[in-house]
Amino acid sequence: MADSPTIDAVFHNAVIVTMDDAFRVLQDGAVAVAGDRIAAVGPSADVLAAFPCAVQTLDLGGRIVLPGLVNTHVHTSQQLARGIADDVDLMTWLHGRIWPYESHMTEEDSYASTLLCGIELIRSGVTCFAEAGGQFVSEMARAVELLGFRACLTKSTMDCGDGLPPNWSCCSTDDCIQSQKELYEKHHNTADGRIRIWFGLRQIMNATDRLLLETRDIAQKLNTGIHMHIAEIPYENQLILRTKGIDHGTVTYLDKIDFLRSNLLAAHSVWLNVPEIGFFSKAGVKVSHCPASAMRMLGFAPIREMLDSGVCVSLGTDGAPSNNRMSIGGLGGGESIYMVHGPLT
Prior knowledge:
InterPro entries: Amidohydro-rel, Metal-dep_hydrolase_composite, Metal_Hydrolase, MQNX/HUTI_composite_N, MTA/SAH_deaminase. This protein is an alpha/beta fold. It is 37% helix and 23% strand.
């Protein structure tokens, strides 16, 4: 715990949830901060003794300090649409409410929406999020850089299917692929490495096989991720069963065409059967479970079965119109919890 001439603050007398390899919890712990970096973590007495000349020393009075939360499924572009799609089924929600709204957004709308979404995320303890896909990724990136987040940003791509607004239906497969490659080249690893660009596929009902497979290949070549809504509702599985000639639904088909990879983040994944959970586990697919939106209009995902099969399951909030709040764990109501970036080691 070597001294430093630029220790800006020591936060002490706190319960420190480190999330280090040993999952230590320090009952009377302290964190020393230098600039935007954690300089030290340890028992309060040790840290206070090591940094007696810190610019600021703050007694947290037994409050909890833990790493910032990661929200793995967010629609920043939907923040301004809170309340416009209540009490309808998913297909009406998409085709009749959300897509018409999103398709009429401007770049400035996207920037303002991302700022507002980000502020709410910060308030609930989130310091990193995975964007599920909007249209103006450059404006998302501008807001993320200003707010200080870490984020995996994606553009929502669709090249076929029902319900597309007129200004989206003209987007070809080549357009979808090229626009994402350009966004990757422009924004990936920017903001001091805090912004990553992933590839986005809205859902299988609006993606050709070519879009799916070329997205798979390019994302793998660039060593980046793919974010996609998968198996949200029974209708999706029924449509794929009927049109693709398989014995179940989306995940079965994605396995058949060799799409599933360990860089795939599958949002929701509510309607999976046991073999499909096995496909996810074998391929190393990650799942973002969004409890609030699932309870509202999707159904109950087989989370216990996924975990028992070794599938990595994380938490997301979805967009504001899906649940009218952006808090992962109810931490936005003024509880005495402080959040710090990264593992506390």
